[in-house]
Amino acid sequence: MSRMFVALVPPADVLAEVEQAVAPLRRNWPELTWVEPANRHITLAFLGDVPDEARRELSVRLARAAGHHEPIPLALGKAGTFTGPGRAITLWLSLRAPGRLARLAGSVAAGARRAGVGRPDERAYRPHFTLARSRKTAELAPLVEALSGFEGTPWDATSAQLFVSHLGPPLRYEPIEDYPLGRRG
Ligand code: 3AM
């Protein structure tokens, strides 16, 4: 049994650009829970604990779901916040083309469900790129402001990845499979 999720990871140059904008904020707000740069991603579907016996079927279903979607042009944009699982307030960067991402996320979640994995959606999918979490909304307001002009370099998302969460500490997300977009097998 492993705790898993499916996500997109921006290319290295985009991640470096984010880190350049975020590093000074991390230094000034050390009391927040920041996502380590190596762990940053765009979640498509949180799967929870996946039984080992479901893995093979899950791989087939996820590969098929990804194959049904063409590569998606994406770009990270200005920051926002919402209340996430466990009532923590999440600080994130927004995404261009959220409609196409939501459709891909829907297919991925549906594919996982057909493999008997995942959970009924508790809330509508909102594409986001998490930077930090806090218990107090007010703490995040200056960061939203500081990142209100962020405009990342666009890229084409060409594959989704299956991750295992190693809760640690340190928390580490391990990519274990890659599913190309737009390639029907
Ligand atoms: O970093 P983001 O916001 O993309 O919040 C967790 C993280 O999302 C989310 O899964 C991603 C990888 O861990 N997550 C964790 N527990 C969750 C839960 N119980 C959850 N999403 C929904 N329900």
UniProtKB/TrEMBL annotation:
It catalyses: a 3'-end 2',3'-cyclophospho-ribonucleotide-RNA + H2O = a 3'-end 2'-phospho-ribonucleotide-RNA + H(+). Its EC number is 3.1.4.58. It is an enzyme of class 3 (hydrolase). A motif (HXTX 2) lies at residues 128-131. The active site is at H41 (proton donor), H128 (proton acceptor). A motif (HXTX 1) lies at residues 41-44. Keywords: Hydrolase. GO terms for molecular function: 2',3'-cyclic-nucleotide 3'-phosphodiesterase activity; RNA 2',3'-cyclic 3'-phosphodiesterase activity. HAMAP family: RNA_CPDase (MF_01940). Hydrolyzes RNA 2',3'-cyclic phosphodiester to an RNA 2'-phosphomonoester. Belongs to the 2H phosphoesterase superfamily. ThpR family. NCBIfam families: 2_5_ligase. This is RNA 2',3'-cyclic phosphodiesterase.
